[in-house]
Amino acid sequence: MGLLKRAKRMPGLLASFIHIDAAADAIRGLRAMGYRNLVVYSPSPNHELEEALNHRVSPVRLFTLIGGLTGCAAGFGMTIWMSYDWPVLVGGKPIASIPPYVVIAFELTILLGALSTVAAVGLFSVLMGKRGVAYDPRFSDDQIGIFVPAGSEDMGRVENLLRSAGAVEVRHEAA
Amino acid sequence: MAVATSAARVVPEGHPTGTQADVTRDVVATLGPASRGYVLLLLGAVSLFLIGILTFLVLIKDGLGHAGYNPPIFWSVYITTFVFWVGIGHAGTLISAILFLFRSPWRTAVYRSTEAMTVFAVMTAGLFPIIHIGRQWIFYWLLPYPNQRYLWPNFKSPLIWDVFAISTYLTVSTTFLVFGLLPDIAAVRDKVSGWRKTVYTLTAAGWRGTDNQWRHYSRAYLYLAALATPLVLSVHSVVSWDFASGIVPGWHGTIFAPYFVAGAIYSGIGMVLTLIIPLRRALRIEHMITEYHFDNLAKLTLLTGSILLYAYGMEYFIAWYSGSPFEQATFFRRAFGPMWWAGWTMITCNAFVSQLLWFRKIRTNITALFVISIFINIGMWFERYVIIVSSLSNDYLPWAWGQLNPTWADWGILAGSFGWFGMWFMLFAKGFPIVAIQEIKEMIPMPRLRGGHH
Fold first, then answer.
1. How many whole angstroms separate alpha carbon B302 and alpha carbon B429?
2. Which tens digit of pLDDT belongs to each residue from B75-133?
């Protein structure tokens, strides 16, 4: 399993910010320079950072939908098939009586919808996330971090941009 | 109600004070070494739980006769306590999911503790149908699985709906709790050292708060809240249909689903108050859960308590208006029969005591709220007791009438359930952040280089 092995460290620059507007400026500047593969750390989700990064909407919603529909179909499918698999007349009702089965289908819609939503987050944020990117414990506390992977670009220019935007610290991360 | 834009989330009242670093520091401090009071309370909970275990062992050995299961009453204290604990759970989901969708900023400080309460309450409730069925070792017969006789469960039975509703509720609320915890565990991981760091590193599941993680997380949280909202309404509706689908007088009412959901939320907020009033003092987080939050919790209690007042009144009215002598006799007996004391306990504790909360002085008086919350807990347990036992003891056939006298086995399991619930809740409060670090930080604007507001 590659997951459990320590990933190879990615070379680049790791900048810390205290100020939200400074971090957003730095992201916009880097994106103007052509950087699309930044990693931005923040203690909580922040709409200013989101606007600066301009990501597409998360594909998690598709998983929620597919999970929910699967649950709904499974709920009706299971109850109706099981009713006809061993047909017993109960209270003069039809063998497969849809109204009570709505309850089962509803609960399974919610169950599979929720589980597939969480599975999608695990897939996109953990399993498919970038590995070996430098991190600092202050990013879960009160600072914003921006990691710029080393590219063909002159890293000195990137460092200048980060510092002039207002980074409180810029660290060089070797491979 | 103040709605919508994320900029408008900043409210003057109840707004967290201090910086983001203060939030992490104060919440991580709650995970420090346990005080003596905490250890004593935990030991108390474990002893109550052991009483439950011992009672249960006797039940397995001898059967449910010990619990006073005699005709005509085969649903009594265990089913009462089952409904009681499921109901407790509902306030947690209301606060964590429904108020999230409504963008109510005051939920932030209390939602983690209420969500934990939900999970542990439903975990407790789930034990009761199993205890109640008598041959506990074959409880899995309730599940649809291929068996030797090719039989499937009867999906037209509300008891099977209940199996699906409760197990979905337990799974989804546990998922919601754990999911919300991830960023907070990561924040704790980055603050502690030694073996605790190892534990939190493993439980944080690689959370680092990258833009990519937040992008998926925020969306997923929204969808989980949107799924949990109809779920919580459905669960107590299904529980109420356990009764309302039967033709027993006093049960067969169309009002049951909304009446039970309102009662569930009312009882749950009662339990929230009972839990967090001592907890916030023990963990020294009085500055995070303030009068403002209690005022809002009390308003929710008032709302749901008033719905109960209406529902109780309407039940009596419809019983009279129906013209059915059985329905009329059942409700007459609830107020003036041999169980009058239970009937009046329910009406007093739920419908009347909640009306005290019209006064702001009472809503913001923590001691008064704590006392009221105890009344709510007692009242809501008795509500289910009255509904279940009074209807079963006197139904259509006078020769089959009977009375129930709860036994030591009833009280032993009831005490054990409080111990089991309390034990998990207290262990959770010491092991994991009981106040949502990340969501409180979201309410504190980050410092700006150029000043001014965005």
1. 28
2. 999 999 999 999 999 999 999 999 899 888 888 888 999 999 999 999 999 999 999 99
Which chain A residues are Cβ-neighbours of B108 within 8 angstroms? none
For residue B132, the SS3 value is helix
Task: Give the CATH number of domain A12-37+132-173; options: 3.10.450, 1.10.3470, 3.30.70, 3.40.50.
Answer: 3.30.70
Say how far apart CA B22 and CA B26 lie, in whole Å: 6
B47, amino acid identity: S
Domain regions of chain A by residue span: 12-37+132-173, 60-126
Q: Which of residues 145-174 of A touch B (CB under 8 A)?
A: 166
**Long-range pairs for B450-454: beta carbons < 8 A, 24 or more residues apart:** B450/A21, B454/A21, B454/A48, B454/B7
ipTM: 0.92
**Residue whose token pair is 């400026």:** A25
The answer to whether the CB atoms of B206 and A126 lie below 8 A apart is yes
Half-sphere exposure of A101 (CA within 13 A, CB side): 21
Q: How many CB pairs under 8 A join A and B?
A: 198
Query: Hey, what amino acid is at A141?
Result: D
* Through-space distance between the first and last CA atoms of chain A, rounded to whole angstroms: 22
Q: How far is B451 from chain A (nearest CA, A)?
A: 9
SS3 B204: coil
Please give the CATH architecture assigned to the domain spanning B20-143+150-443.
Up-down Bundle (1.20)
Interface check for A38 against chain B (CB to CB < 8 A): the answer is: yes
**B292: closest CA among B120, B116, B443?**
B443
Structure tokens at A79: 């109850």
Report the 3 state secondary structure along B316-351. Answer: HHHHHHCCCHHHHHHHHHHHHCCCHHHHHHHHHHHH
| Per-residue tens of pLDDT for chain A, all 175 residues | 345 556 678 888 899 999 999 999 999 999 988 888 889 999 999 888 988 888 888 899 999 999 999 999 999 999 999 999 988 887 788 999 999 999 999 999 999 999 999 999 999 887 877 778 889 999 999 899 999 988 766 788 888 889 998 889 998 887 7
- Phi, psi (5° rounding) for residue A39? -120, 120
The C-alpha of B141 sits at a distance from chain A's nearest C-alpha, in angstroms, of: 15
Across the interface, whether the CB atoms of B217 and A82 are under 8 A apart is answered no
Domain ranges of chain B: 20-143+150-443
d(CA B46, CA B182): 28
Q: Which residue of A has its CA nearest to B191?
A: A137
Q: Pick from A22, A47, A125: which is nearest to B212 by CB?
A: A125
